Amino acid sequence: MPRIVFTPQLRRFVEAPDFEASALSLAEALQQAFAAHPRLRDYVLDEQQHLRTHVVVFIDGQRARDRLLLSDALKPDSVVHVLQALSGG
């Protein structure tokens, strides 16, 4: 099953343990994680259910391509990392 790993920074604000999902897409996997941990949704998705601008997702070491529909495919052994993007100078 694909595994979602949330950044430790999110754990300062909300319960965000690693999560195993039975999903074929990023959207499905995240929805399953949010069903188990509802408060996590607002830290990851905006009002349109798109990734927030300060969030970046990597699937098997590659940056997710679809920030809007979250349609990136997952393999049964995929590892998804959900991180807060850093900005500044």
TrEMBL record:
SUPFAM superfamilies given in the database record: MoaD/ThiS
Highest taxon listed in the record's lineage: Bacteria
Matching Gene3D superfamilies: 3.10.20.30
InterPro entries listed in its UniProt record: Beta-grasp_dom_sf (IPR012675), Mopterin_synth/thiamin_S_b (IPR016155), Sulfur_Carrier/Prot_Modifier (IPR052045), ThiS/MoaD-like (IPR003749)
Protein name: MoaD/ThiS family protein
Organism: Roseateles aquae
